[in-house]
Amino acid sequence: MTITYDDFRALLKSGDLTNLYLFIGEEVFLQEFCVTGAKKALIDPAFADFNCKEYIELPSFDDASSFISALPLMSAKKLVVFNNCALFERKISEKSRWAELFSNLPSYVTVIIRENGESKGAATEIKKAVTKMAVTVDFKLLTAERLRPWLVKLFASKGKSISSQNASYIVSSVGRSMTTLRTEAEKIVAKSENFEISRRDIDSVIIKPLTETVFKLIDALFSSRPDLCYKILSTLRQTNQEPVAVISVIASQTLVIYKAKLMLTGHKSISEVKKALGGGFSTDKAVDNASKVPLTQIEALICALRKADFDTKNGIMDPWCALDLIIAAR
Q: Which of 155, 184, 267, 314 could covalently link to 160 via disulfide, CB atoms 3.0 to 4.6 Å apart?
């Protein structure tokens, strides 16, 4: 059985936690948040030393088994957390005993296993047992639409104000990892002397990935600005960016623009289109660019991008030349 972060939050609020959970997925920040939530829900801080154990490296089987088997002290529940202890690696000894332990946990204990890395090879006996018995919680990255208000609240908690648009800009610049976003927000707060966080404050701190520059190239493409396109392309070359990656980002965003154009042509409102596409900075850009050109031009660009992808991957054309041709065709 696999559930989402939101499902697990609901279980925390109800206090209805079962024996075994397997945390997977990219969003480590929310995993840690939920572990903290489980402690608050299950463990009295006065007796935490007796009823709660967090392992950051694999303990001996006897140590873990003894703690799990011992009855809770002055509490109805115990909590055990394995934080990326490589439980599913083949080199683990006493696999059968571990598998048996996780298959027959006492009713008073809740075990959370966090395994963010991919174990190599076939599933071990331990992994098979855990997968069978556990409720798997898949922590996917949150959408930009959900991250915007979270960032606004985060800045507010640090005595700063930020607009929803600038919060969206940060997400588009550094990605959707909440750990990364929190780190960048702390850096912005530390450097800014103003109450209101501006675009200049953001740009002075964060290092934008390739995607941000390519978005400017896409804007120039859809604005019929070949001069600006070639200027941005020159910058990408000078900074030793990978041209195949540039083509990939352009293709990915152009498909979003194409979807937006189809929905706009089908008489959906701009707000409906943005909601359907998930919201966020890239969606705003897509809808804006979709309104600039006819559908036939977007379809022609998609065809050119597909040809560029094929030609570069098969060694028919240098990828920088392919990008030059894409710009010339527009």
A: 155
> Residue 121: pLDDT above 50?
no
What is the spatial distance between Cα 221 and Cα 229, in angstroms, rounded to a whole number?
A: 6
Report the percentage of the chain scoring pLDDT > 70: 96
Whole-angstrom Cα distance, residue 307 to residue 302?
A: 9
Predicted confidence (pLDDT) per residue in 284-298, tens digit: 888 999 998 899 999
State the pairing for strand pair 109-114/196-197. unpaired
Cβ neighbours of 166 (radius 10 Å) = 21
Task: Please state whether beta strands 135-138 and 109-114 pair in parallel, antiparallel, or not at all (unpaired).
Answer: unpaired
pTM of the prediction? 0.64
Torsion of CA 24, 27, 28, 30, to 10 degrees: -100
d(CA 284, CA 304): 24
pLDDT digits (tens, 9 = 90+) for 134-155: 999 999 999 989 999 999 999 9
